[in-house]
User: What shape does this take?
Amino acid sequence: MSSSVPRHTTSRLFLMKKSGRFPVVLLFFFLLLSSCLPASESGSTPAGKGSSGGSSPLPTILSWQIQYSGKLDTDLDVEMFDLDLFEVSKETIDSLHRRGVYVVCYFSAGSYEDWRPDASRFPREVLGKEMEGWPGEKWLDVRKIDLLAPIMRSRLDLAARKGCDGVDPDNVNGYENDTGFPIGAEDQIAYNLFLSKAAHRRNLAIGLKNDLDQIPALVSHFDWELDEECFSYGECGKLLPFVKAGKPVFVIEYDLPPEKFCRESDELGFNALLKHRNLDAYRVDCHEWGK
Assistant: This one.
């Protein structure tokens, strides 16, 4: 893995989260926005690894690992790996597939990273404020789907060519943060729906990363939820719509010891890990802890 990878490890560590609840009365309106997406993403979703509105391609309870830095340990006996789209090779994915491992590929859909190979494709007008604590990374203006769509489609095409089973698009809650743009909740919904449709049209499953307040509007369009530190923030109840929909919930904690969240995680039906903040190979799996 390159030395650039650890520069982006978690989307919540330095974000300025706004207070307030997402108005439930607007959810019906937001769901209608899918009809306004770019024409090439507005068709029906083919059956495959991920299907909008259908069941998840993954079981609700499984063993998994997320690793973006350090020497990649693919010998770990887990059912799913979450790896960096640009860093992981097709050969590594093929090797994992031969063992029956499900491979999810990570990329940032809501921020510009100056070290990525496609960084020159981002128009200046979509680049917002720098993300605090992440040198070389800036928020994107997700209202401009027409400008971002070709770049994101290319990333999804790369995921499909490499053989990724699903994708983990990060920073899809910019509307809660100081991005430099007047991004509203409805703008975020529209962009996230675009990502979901674009992934599913390429036979890729897709997870929702954080964005907890919009889960009621998006749960039927995403195949799982991946949240960071819901136990630390006291927000885990917001993840339950995914559990009720029969879709897996993945949780990462960085500071809490396992005895502070693992038992509750298992009771809620989550798949939780204790990880280092740089997301190296270290992990404590709550399903195994205490046994």
Notes: The longest strand covers residues 102-108. Helices lie at 27-31, 90-98, 145-162, 185-201, 215-218, 230-233, 240-244, 262-268. Residues 79-285 form a domain with the TIM Barrel fold (CATH 3.20.20.70). The longest helix spans residues 145-162.
